[in-house]
Specification:
With 110 residues, the chain is of the alpha+beta class. The protein contains 1 helix and 6 strands. It starts with a helix and ends with a strand.
Length: 110
């Protein structure tokens, strides 16, 4: 009975701390980041790239699709091509004009 109590105790502690023994797939996104607006820091129109003010800290991984908005108006999509802890670089996927300061939202994986 003592062993079952220990297992139950450790299970509760591990769950409360959010510890996972298996890594989540890269495409799994944390839902807490889906509704938070991130910002475009820089636009390179020649290369069709934008720099975003979040990265792996928001579980933003290579290949993720993000929606870009300006004043609550949908502008278009970008795809993450490189992600570091606090910044990411995304490729503009269509013929859209993104500006510095536009809002970027992480979209859930399909």
């Amino acid at each position: 009975m003592v062993k079952i109590g220990r297992v139950l105790f450790y299970t509760v502690v591990i769950t409360a701390m959010g510890i996972s023994f298996a890594d989540s797939p890269e495409w799994v996104l944390k839902t807490t980041y889906l509704n938070r607006a991130n910002k475009v820091l820089e636009v390179n129109e020649d290369l069709g790239l934008v720099r975003i003010d979040t990265g792996t800290q928001s579980n933003l991984r290579r290949g993720a699709v993000c929606k870009v908005y300006r004043d609550k108006e949908y502008i278009g999509d970008v795809v993450i091509i490189e992600s570091e802890k606090t910044k990411a670089v995304a490729m503009i996927t269509s013929d859209i004009k993104i500006k510095t300061g536009d809002a970027v939202y992480i979209t859930p994986a399909n």
